[in-house]
Design a protein that fits this description.
25 strands, alpha+beta, seven-stranded antiparallel sheet, 16 helices, 673 residues, single chain
């Protein structure tokens, strides 16, 4: 009898709990989360920058990616599911993370459906879910490379395949996509499949040896399993999430590249593969929100300091190295030196032309900082979310939304005497490395959910862009706000109250860390009080319909320099305006002139003008530069500084995210001063 009561009460609690989890991160009941997500359908872009980007997403990117991943002559992802389901005989084809790529696109479709309610999207998702159900094994397992072999009699050493084949990564993205789908549609068909996956993982990790249970590469399942706990309130999923941290770094074959050479609770700096690292840190932040274990937060804060102040690019990009040797997990014995790839390097090791800066790593930076913001309400994390979104995430996709970058260098030069593994031109399909395109697809669909947060104290405004918010406070009262702005081109932001609670309603406006001399007014009356950059400014009063909050963020052009320990850019400068980093492309220069020859006049007037670029208006910055008359370096490594005169020019700099949309050419963010 007692057991039945527990089961009934748990079901009742679960039903109430699930109803409150409506955002990308279902943290409405997370005891150690200071901020909570608003619903996926509660924010809609109305015009301006993010509305344009969302329109590109819905009209171009999402249908392009959905069709691409159904086209087995290019991508075999959907075909792999059909073969695994027994609909036809065949072999697995493509990278082993193909399943996860498809789940990411699916997640983007679900997030888009949340705001558009497009019935076609709903039908397509149901069709895919029905296929997933046919693929899934009775024990909940789903991973097409193994299941195809199993079904058609070509199964090899399954346990090895699991660990080396992105199995847990794929399952993690499935669970996350299923939670988003449930919140967007209210349907449980995909969530039921995800429960099977989560149950399988729970049983697997409970029985497996540390060697077999070694955390597989790219741990998206950390975020996925916590989200399953939040959505279903099944306590064993939280236990699994704790276990995943406990077993990390307990084997003898761990590596810095996989962040498991030592236990996580001993890790205080960022190491190894940047995508894996940022996914891990995001998952640990999710776990902290549920358990409040102080050591987890202490380590995350220490690692964040290491990244933000020593290992992150000015664009918010992460992962400087294509290949290298771990700075920490090394040995004087050359036979046991640990190799790393697509990785964080040493502090201040930030090359530009050879920067790896994978788009997925930059998205991982957003995921991690978003979760840090939730658990701390500290604006410095929102600053990084904004920085990466506008620069190193959007640079991963072209302006028309159908070509993508795997890596995001800060310098593209024709003079490099070697060919890099991944090119410096966006492609419609990056063979064997197309993971970033689906990731950008889902991220752009979900940006609106980053714009606001709810807390016991009030409404947090994180990102600026013209939108409408229709939500309920944590007290259950209706709150409706219209935001009007031409951000990031202009720093004037207007929040118009449409409907508010009868009692005083606090607003917390993010004052970006890049800003200075910000001012705030309510109904044209300037607000007294110190406005501090890199913080949230609190305004509280009883509001009536039509009340207006106006935030003004001056956006002068700023010339930036790096810490002198960043050897790559010593005596060089970059140009930034508001949240946007700018770059110079070679189409602005005379023939036979390289972007590497340019010297920026830091005393330029820096005037701004809108230009048309691939049917989009972007704000350019006019700057004065000079180029030495003698720029020859043929068979020359060193030479005296030229005493010849320099030629002066005026050029248009464009936002970094828009580089490469005018055809092949050179580009640089940093210029000599």
């Amino acid at each position: 009898m007692k057991k039945s009561v527990i089961i009934i009460s748990t079901l009742l609690f679960t039903t109430a709990f699930v109803a409150q989890n409506k955002g990308l991160v279902g943290n409405s009941q997370s005891p150690y989360s200071k901020l909570q997500s608003v619903g996926l359908d509660e924010v809609r872009w109305t015009n301006g920058f993010w509305k344009e980007q969302f329109d590109v997403e819905t009209k171009n990117t999402l249908p392009y990616m959905w069709n691409l991943y159904h086209n087995d002559s290019i991508s075999h992802a959907y075909k792999n599911f059909e073969i695994a389901a027994g609909l036809m005989k065949g072999k697995f084809s493509g990278p082993s993370f193909h399943d996860g790529d498809f789940y990411k696109i699916f997640e983007g479709m679900a997030a888009t459906y949340a705001t558009t309610k497009d019935k076609k999207l709903d039908l397509e998702m149901d069709k895919a879910i029905a296929l997933f159900a046919k693929v899934q094994r009775k024990d909940g397992y789903i991973h097409t490379p193994v299941l195809i072999d199993e079904r058609w009699g070509t199964l090899g050493p399954e346990e090895v395949k699991k660990q080396l084949g992105f199995e847990k990564y794929n399952m993690g993205h499935l669970m996350t996509a299923a939670c988003v789908h449930y919140r967007a549609t209210g349907k449980t068909n995909f969530l039921d499949i995800a429960k099977g996956v989560a149950d399988y993982l729970y049983d697997f990790y409970k029985k497996a040896s540390p060697e077999l249970a070694r955390n597989a590469i790219c741990p998206s399942h950390y975020m996925g399993i916590v989200e399953m706990y939040r959505t279903t309130k099944n306590p064993k999923y939280l236990g699994l999430a704790n276990n995943l941290i406990d077993i990390r770094g307990t084997t003898n074959d761990g590596t810095d590249d996989n962040q498991d050479r030592i236990p996580f609770r001993q890790q205080t700096t960022a190491m190894g593969h940047a995508v894996r690292a940022n996914y891990l840190y995001a998952g640990v932040a999710d776990l902290y929100a549920e358990t409040g274990e102080k050591k987890l937060l202490e380590n995350l804060e220490s690692i964040w300091d290491d990244v933000a102040y020593r290992k992150m690019y000015i664009t918010g990009a992460c992962g400087a190295l294509y290949d290298g040797v771990s700075p920490d997990g090394t040995s004087y014995d050359p036979t046991v030196v640990q190799k790393i790839h697509q990785a964080y390097g040493r502090p201040f090791q930030l090359p530009n032309a050879t920067a790896h800066t994978e788009t997925c790593a930059n998205i991982g930076n957003v995921l991690w900082n978003w979760r840090m913001l939730q658990i701390t309400a500290d604006a410095k994390y929102a600053d990084i979310v904004e920085l990466a979104l506008y620069n190193s995430v959007l640079s991963g996709i072209d302006l028309e939304g159908e070509k993508f970058c795997y890596n995001n260098p800060l310098n593209v030069s024709d003079e490099l005497p070697f060919q890099q593994r991944w090119g410096n031109e966006r492609e419609g399909y990056i063979k064997l490395s197309n993971c970033c395109a689906p990731n950008v697809t889902r991220t752009i669909a979900e940006v609106a959910n980053y714009a606001y947060n709810l807390s016991k104290e009030g409404l947090y405004v994180n990102l600026y862009g013209s939108n409408t918010l229709k939500t309920k406070t944590l007290n259950g009262e209706i709150l409706e706000v219209e935001q009007q702005t031409n951000y990031p081109w202009d720093g004037k932001i207007v929040l118009k109250i449409v409907k508010a609670p009868k009692e005083a309603q606090p607003f917390f406006l993010r004052i970006p860390g890049w800003s200075q001399n910000a001012s705030i007014a309510v109904n044209n009356q300037k607000i007294d009080g110190k406005v501090i950059s890199g913080s949230y400014f609190r305004i509280s009063q009883k509001w009536k319909k039509g009340d207006v909050i106006e935030l003004n963020l001056p956006m002068p052009v700023e010339v930036m320099e790096a810490n002198p320990l960043v050897e790559e850019v010593k005596n060089q400068v970059a140009v930034k305006r508001g949240p946007l980093v700018y770059c110079l492309e070679s189409d602005q220069l005379p023939a036979n002139t390289s972007v590497n020859d340019v010297v920026l006049n830091v005393n330029s007037k820096f005037t701004t003008h809108f230009i048309d670029l691939d049917h989009r208006k972007v704000l350019s910055i006019e700057a004065d530069i000079s180029v030495p008359s003698d720029t020859s370096w043929n068979k020359t490594l060193y030479k005296p500084i030229s005493t010849h005169e320099c030629n002066s020019f005026t050029v248009k700099l464009i936002p970094y995210f828009a580089w490469g949309n005018k055809g092949k050419g050179e580009m640089t963010v940093w210029m000599s001063r």
